[in-house]
Amino acid sequence: MIKSLQTWQKRWAALSLRQTLFLGASLGILLPALVLGYFQIVSRYENAVDLRVRAPMEQYADVLSRGMAVAMWNVDKGVADELVDAVMRNPDVVSVRVVDENQEIFVFKRNEGQVDGQMLKESREVVYNGARVGQLTVELTAARVEREFKSDILKLAQGLLAQVAVSFLFIWWLFNRRMMRPLQELQAGALRLARGELKQPLNTFGTDEIGNLAKGLDAMRIDLGHLLTERDQKNATLEHELAERKRTEEALTLSRAKFAAIFDASPVAMTVSKLGGEFTLVDFNVAWERLFAQDRALVRTSADQHNALWQNQHERQRVMETLMQTGEVSRSPNWMLRGEGHSAILCEVSGKVFSQGGEPFLILAYEDITEKQKNQQDILQLNATLEVRVAERTRELSEALSHLTAAQSELVRSGKMAALGALVAGIAHELNTPVGNSLMVASTMQDQAASFSQDLAQGLTRSRLEQFVAKMQDGASILMSGLRHAAELVASFKQVAVDQTSINRRRFDLHDTVEEILLTLGPSIRKTTCTVQTQIPAGLAMESFPGPLGQVITNLINNAMLHAFEGRESGVITISAHADGNDHLIFTVQDNGVGIPQAHLARVFDPFFTTKLGRGGSGLGLNIVYNLVHDVLGGSIHVDSPPGEGACFTMRLPLLVAVVQPTH
After folding, report:
1. How many CB atoms lie under 10 A from the CB of residue 117?
2. What is the helix (H) or strand (E) element at residue 241, kind and residue range?
């Protein structure tokens, strides 16, 4: 397929302009005529088939289906044969087939001669008084219509060929007279121009496109004459400029030699590198070779040998990035390695990027400041004696810091005890309802028992006994429910109290632990207008310290209730957690409150920082949270507060904490 396509492309490229245009004109006339004629013939053929074959066939089917109904009902094949014979007189009818409801042939007739051409078929149900008694099939052929249209196609093709022949002859004459002859003359003129014969003018062939082209070529002939004259003049000028450039290059060579001599004689160690990639070393002077005790041949053949002189490759990368960004670096101190058997030295590296011949280069200068650095260290050691003068002040500051730390620890302890007291009060409030209900049910059962005892002395009936048993069962059920609820509260209080008053590590389910903590905070939460939601999957197990974790959750909820919903009627606090890999989880406490101002975000975990000083805020809640998360739970915490979207405290905690650190 590819070879055939390439062959046709070669043949097409080998055609002359005359052959190409004649072939295009012929195809442009013939193809639209063929396409249009084809669609006209197809349309006429379809219309003729519909009018002369399909319409009579549908009519025959309708008439025969109605006539056959009575004949089939009366089993009168004679009448059926007459009806079918009347239809078979049409030479286009191929066959008529009638079967009864058992698919047995009732009437069948066929014209054996009609087997060619397009076959059309129409079927009808034979119905008599609403009952189906058989099926009729009529088959016709469109052979006559096809034969007539084949004759029309032949006539149309002959007409098209005659039209194309006349059009082709006319186009040939017009094209040869108005295009090919002028083009041949233009070709002869172009050949003269190519040989440099610029004196003979070209013929203009009127004012059409070819005439305009001839005028353009003649104008080009005149311009070429002028250009050739200018070329000779410029050649002389260029020869003069080349001589000047040669002298300039000789001067530049001399200047480079002088620079090389100065570069090599400089007492400052310097290198020249080509920018890009690994900063390929181009040259270095004798001072650099002496300073770094390097073999010239080895360094020149190995860029890695030169780059390895930097003791800290990260510092080298930083210096190179600075050079690429700013174009220069000044007095950057870096430790450099020297040749084998020599100690490292501290150098101040300075450099600048420059361009030579369109390529970027880098020149670096190295100054050994090792001795200078040592002298500065000696001065610093001498200045260290000045610390004696401030020792007294330092001791005073240390004592003040100790007092401040003790005060902070006392405030933290007081906060813990206050939280435990609030926990006890809350649990007592929660226990009041189930215990009170249980006491009321127990007293009611006692009264029912006394009444039953009196009825028993007077004479007991079966209905009274059943009534007493039913009431005792209801009371026992209510009593068990209340006592079970009280037992659950006591168990939760016991676990939370043990966790918050100790720092024991144990394995626990995060979902259950958070629910227990929220249960103990229930009375405090219900006193406010906010609600707390949890989105923690069951089965998320941790081996950590539930007590400090509970204190973190309590402090974050209390902080939200105190600060987040000021000036709002309601609010939502959402606690969520999900696994982060196999070793950690992400724990968030988020509210939809007023948020934290951007100016305060960097200070929220600082001790004694609060916006509610004297109004319920101590400034230690979030500081305690920060210390517990980092020092005890072994995790990290940060806060986000987009404007108008509340505050979100996000903690990344390990699922397994190995050791406990002391809290602040």
Report:
1. 18
2. helix 209-265
